[in-house]
Specification:
Keywords: Acyltransferase, Lipid A biosynthesis, Lipid biosynthesis, Lipid metabolism, Repeat, Transferase. By secondary structure, this protein is α/β, with parallel strands linked by helices. The chain has 3 domains: 86 residues, 3-Layer(aba) Sandwich (Udp-n-acetylmuramoylalanyl-d-glutamate--2,6- Diaminopimelate Ligase, Chain: A, domain 1); 197 residues, 3 Solenoid (UDP N-Acetylglucosamine Acyltransferase, domain 1); 34 residues. It is built from 5 helices and 38 strands. The strands form 6 sheets. A 10-stranded parallel β-sheet has the order 8-11-14-17-20-25-28-31-34-37, with no helix packed on it. A 10-stranded parallel β-sheet has the order 10-13-16-19-24-27-30-33-36-38, with no helix packed on it. The longest helix is centred in the C-terminal third of the chain and has 16 residues.
C-alpha cells in the first residue's frame, strides 16, 4: 500500500506543509523512521526526535510545526490522524477469502447473504443469519439462531453459541467465546444444581472484541454490549452484564454478573468488578482496581498495591498483621483522653 502525501492530507482533512507528491508507504516511529515513512508526534517528550527524524512526513499539531525539518500534516489530534493513516495503509491479511470453502458445513435453513465468506471447517447451524459482507475465519462455529450483522468479521476459531446477535461492522479476534453459559448454580445441601442459562447475548454495531475473551449469555434476560465498545484480550464478562456506548475495557479484566456499566467508561487492565453493582457514565477505573461497590460520580477510581522493593513490601505486610491490635490500642488511648480514669 502507498499513497502520496497530498492524498493523505485530503483523506485526513489535514493542513499540508511540504511536497504533496512525496510517496508514503508505511508508518514508523520518529526515532527509527526512514524515507517513505510517515510518523507522528503526540507527546512533548519526543520533540527532540522530531528534529532528527528521517521520516518523509510527520503528523503533528500546529504548535510543533516550527520544530519539524521535514514534510508535515497538521491536525488538531495527531494520534487520531495516525489511526486514520494506519487504516489507509493497513496490510493485515483477510481472515478468509473466496466465498464458501468446500469444507464449511452450513445448515439448509441458515440464511447467508450472497457475498458471505466462510473459511475452512466453519460450521453454521440451523436458523443462523449472516448478513452482507460477513467474513468468518477458519474453524469458527456459529450456533443456532445466531446473527452476524453487515460487515462483521470473525478471525479463526471464534465460537458463537446459540441466540447470539452481533451488529454491523464488528470485529472478533481468535479464540473468543460468545454466549457460553453464565456461572449460575443453586446449592442444595452441598450439591450444585445447574441453572440453565436461558438468555442470549446482544452485541451492538462497531464493537471490537479481543482474543480469548468470554462473554457469557444471560441467565434469563440478555447480556448486552452497546455500540462502539472495545474489549481487549482475555476478558471475562459474566451473565447479564450491560456495557454502555463507547466504553473501553483493557485486558484480563473480570466483570461479575449483572454489572451495569455506563457510557464512555475506561476500565484498566486486570481490574475486577463485583457483581450486581453499577458504574456511572464517564468513570475511569485504573489498572488492577478492585471495584466492590457502585460508582455514581464520574471520575478516576483506583485501588491495589503498586510494586515496590521486596524488603519494603515484606515490612509493610508484617505490619498489616498487627492492624487490629493497633486499632484496639488507639481506641483505648482515645477513651483515656476523654476520661483519664479509664484504663
Amino acid at each position: 500500500m502507498s499513497m502520496t502525501l497530498g492524498e493523505l492530507a485530503q483523506q485526513l482533512g489535514a493542513e499540508l506543509h511540504g511536497d504533496p507528491q512525496v510517496v508514503i508507504q508505511r508508518i514508523a516511529n520518529l526515532e527509527t523512521a526512514q524515507e517513505g515513512s510517515i510518523s507522528f508526534l503526540t507527546s512533548a517528550k519526543y520533540r527532540d526526535f522530531l528534529q532528527q527524524t528521517k521520516a518523509s512526513a510527520v503528523l503533528l499539531k500546529a504548535a510543533d510545526l516550527p520544530l519539524c525539518q521535514t514534510n508535515a500534516l497538521v491536525l488538531a489530534d495527531p494520534y487520531v490522524g495516525f489511526a486514520r493513516v494506519a487504516q489507509l495503509l493497513d496490510t493485515t491479511p483477510a481472515q478468509a477469502t473466496g466465498g464458501i470453502h468446500p469444507s464449511a458445513q452450513v445448515a439448509p435453513d441458515a440464511q447467508l447473504a450472497a457475498n458471505v465468506v466462510l473459511g475452512a471447517n466453519v460450521v453454521v447451524e440451523s436458523g443462523a443469519v449472516l448478513a452482507e459482507g460477513v467474513v468468518v475465519g477458519p474453524g469458527c462455529f456459529i450456533g443456532r439462531d445466531s446473527r452476524l450483522g453487515k460487515g462483521t468479521r470473525l478471525w479463526a476459531n471464534v465460537t458463537v453459541y446459540h441466540d447470539v446477535w452481533l451488529g454491523e461492522a464488528c470485529l472478533v479476534q481468535s479464540g473468543t467465546v460468545l454466549g457460553a453459559d453464565g456461572f449460575g448454580y443453586a446449592n442444595e445441601r452441598g450439591e450444585w444444581i445447574k441453572i440453565p442459562q436461558l438468555g442470549g447475548v446482544r452485541i451492538g454495531n462497531r464493537v471490537e472484541i479481543g482474543a480469548n475473551t468470554c462473554i457469557d449469555r444471560g441467565a434469563i434476560d440478555h447480556t448486552c454490549i452497546a455500540d462502539n465498545v472495545i474489549i481487549d484480550n482475555l476478558c471475562q464478562i459474566a451473565h447479564n452484564v450491560e456495557i454502555g456506548y463507547g466504553t473501553a475495557i483493557a485486558g484480563s479484566t473480570t466483570i461479575a454478573g449483572s454489572v451495569e456499566i455506563g457510557k464512555y467508561c475506561i476500565i484498566g487492565g486486570a481490574s475486577v468488578l463485583n457483581g450486581h453493582i453499577s458504574i456511572c457514565d464517564q468513570a475511569t477505573i485504573t489498572g488492577m482496581a478492585m471495584v466492590m461497590r457502585s460508582i455514581s460520580e464520574p471520575g478516576i477510581y483506583s485501588s491495589g498495591v503498586p510494586a515496590q522493593p521486596n524488603k519494603q513490601w515484606r515490612k509493610m505486610a508484617a505490619r498489616l498483621l498487627h492492624v487490629e491490635d493497633l486499632h484496639a490500642r488507639l481506641s483505648r488511648l482515645e477513651k483515656q483522653l476523654v476520661d483519664p480514669e479509664q484504663k
